[in-house]
Amino acid sequence: MFYGISLTAILVALWLTLSGPFTLSGDYPIVMGLGVLSIIGTVALTYRMRIVDRETVPIGPALALFTYWGWLGGEIVKANLAVLRLVMKPEIEVEPRLIRAPAEQRTDLGRCVFANSITLTPGTVTVDVEDDGFLVHALDKSFTDPAGFAEMGARSDIASDGKKRTD
C-alpha cells in the first residue's frame, strides 16, 4: 500500500510539474481530468501487473540518490575542467585508454547508476557491460584512476538502495 501511495504522489508531482501554468479558463478542466485519469490508469496497471514494489517505486533511497546527484554534479564539473585543460593546450597530448572498471554493486539498479555515471562524466564512456564490471574508454590516462572508479562505484551502490555496504 505504501508503494502505491508513493507512486501516486510521484506521478501527481511529475504531472503537475510538466503540465505548465495553471489557469481555470479554457480547456484546463479537460486537461486536469485527463491527467487524473492517466495517473489512476497507470497506478491501476502497475497493481494489475503486480510490479508495485520497492524496485519499481524506490522511495527509500531517495535522500541517498539526491546526495549522490549532488556529488556527481561536482565530479562532472571537475571532469569538464580537466577535459578543457587537456584540449586547450597548444599541443594536444591525449593518451586514450580502454580499461576495465570493476562493478561490485548489489543490485542491477546500482550497476545501471554506476555505468551511466561513468558515461555522464566528461572524458569517460562506458563501452561494454560485462559480468564483473564495465569496459570504459577514457580520453586520457589521467581519467583512469582506479580509486576514482571505486569511489563512484561505492557511492552509486549506496544511492541505488540507500544502504552502506557492510562487507
TrEMBL record:
Chain ranges passing through the membrane: 29-47
Single GO term (MF): monoatomic cation transmembrane transporter activity
Claim: Glycoprotein is one of the keywords in the record: no
Protein localization: Cell membrane
GO CC annotations, alphabetized: plasma membrane
InterPro entries cross-referenced by the UniProt entry: Cation_antiport_E (IPR002758)
Keyword line: Cell membrane, Membrane, Transmembrane, Transmembrane helix
Membrane topology category: Multi-pass membrane protein
Record's keyword annotation contains Magnesium: no
Pfam families linked: MNHE
Domain of life of the native organism: Bacteria
Similarity comment text for this entry: Belongs to the CPA3 antiporters (TC 2.A.63) subunit E family.
Name of protein: Multisubunit sodium/proton antiporter, MrpE subunit
